[in-house]
Specification:
Length: 255
Amino acid sequence: MSAIFKSPAFVLSGQDLGESDRLITFYTMLRGKMRGIAKGAKRSRRRFVNALEPFTMLDLSLALPRTTGLNRINSTEIIDNFPFIRHKVECFIMASLCCELVSLWTKENDTQEDIFKLLQWYLKSLNGGLHPRKTTLFFKTFLLALAGYAPDFDRCLLCRRPPMSDHVIFKLHAGGFICSECRKSVEKTHKISLGTLKSLRYIQNGSLDNFHRLNMTGSVFEEAWSLMKGLHCHHLERVPTSYEAFKGLKLEIGK
């Protein structure tokens, strides 16, 4: 008899498997990322009743294989399907991106409860009507740190002093910035303002409870958004496919 694994979980993604099955990727609280086969899910939706839709929160039960092979979805019970997100295009695209990022950054059966809690905060915040892009910026900044790639927003990579001028040059590959005194000798790419640097430092060094306290101008927000996208793509060595959905979508600036 197969062992049964039970845990709260989020649905990250799903794909067809053969003529009748679906392969679902979850992020569980107890074991991190896991995959499971939903037998007959393509032929009949009655058994799972929309429980396998992206970013649904579940009480998940998986039948684990005795030796090798894939887990089988034993049962699911919806905790929250975040209906507001599903009825607003911008929120749906943002949530899809962040679920993809979690999947790309994590390995199977590698427990990171902080990532589970971050995803839970994020989806609840989006569903509660918080600004989609600002909430997503917070999520991506925290996720990068949890993945072990937290940038150094405090001191120059070369002289190790805090920034003194209005702009610095950020180096994606090094995960830090070059100050105005040192930047004359380096290629000027990813120039960002001191306001952007301070805002990202505030997010990274703070807590999710600080969300409402951060005010950003439109230009600072766009710089921070671009830099965070660049950092994720650089370290992942790929552009998440969810970014394709952003093309042609009129996005509000962060506030």
